[in-house]
Write a structure and sequence with these properties.
Number of strands: 8
Strand content: 15-25%
Radius of gyration: 17 Å
């Protein structure tokens, strides 16, 4: 049964007409344009360091895509510090780690939300071997199975510099996106994060600049702004 979204309200769900929600829709549109020549079925979202807003970006982007009529699945592949079950107020008893370890069936791990077309697979219990789980053949098979049922799968991962998890998932996704907090994330960290993804030949679609001071920087109507990787070259 669908559960209420109440612990961390999603702005795109609670206030879809707000400027912030419009910025998420712009991000959705830019992603659609980025995938004209190559299908985008699996999108990984990461950051260089904790606290930059990657999980919030995942959740709100998923909502806007579902609102546009796509069937969307959010997967919490942050098997170290998961947050999706908090954002969507879901049980985390069963989830991705449970599926990969054979402890539950898909029907136990996948949750409906109050948002039409949007499903969530939380992380499940934190395992002792997150990287090995993500690298397993079961993970590859799971993604292949789920791609048959959804238009878009958005995957939340740990920060790319901290552990290898994001690099592993980047090799299994059609594209990845880096979330950067304005005024906080140092350039050298961003460069290291980008280099880490390029090292595994990840398809970097662009960067989400988060927490921009709209008045100071002239972004009067934007909270998130998307820079395509082509524009940055």
């Amino acid at each position: 049964m669908p559960r209420s979204i109440n612990k961390r309200p999603l702005i795109t769900y609670t206030n879809p007409k707000s400027p912030i929600s419009e910025s998420y829709r712009m991000l959705r549109t830019n992603l659609q344009f980025s995938s004209i020549d190559q299908e985008l079925k699996t999108l990984m979202v990461t950051s260089s360091a904790p606290g930059e807003g990657k999980s919030t970006t995942v959740a709100n982007l998923a909502v806007t895509c579902a609102q546009a009529g796509q069937t969307v699945l959010v997967m919490d592949a942050d098997l170290r510090k998961p947050t999706m079950h908090h954002i969507f107020s879901l049980s985390n008893r069963w989830g991705m780690s449970s599926l990969l370890s054979g402890q539950c069936e898909m029907r136990d791990a996948m949750h409906a939300t109050n948002i039409e077309n949007l499903m969530v697979i939380p992380s499940g219990p934190i395992p002792p071997n997150p990287a090995e789980m993500l690298l397993s053949k079961k993970m590859a098979a799971l993604l292949d199975e789920l791609k048959e049922s959804f238009d878009l799968i958005i995957i939340d991962t740990p920060p790319v510099i901290a552990v290898t998890d994001a690099q592993i998932m980047a090799t299994r996704c059609d594209g990845c996106m880096l979330v950067v907090q304005a005024g906080k994330t140092k350039r050298e960290l961003i460069a290291r994060a980008k280099a880490s993804l390029e090292q595994v030949n990840a398809r970097i679609l662009g960067v989400v600049l988060n927490n921009v001071d709209r008045k100071k920087n002239g972004y009067y109507n934007y909270y998130y702004y998307y820079y395509s990787s082509e524009e940055k070259r």
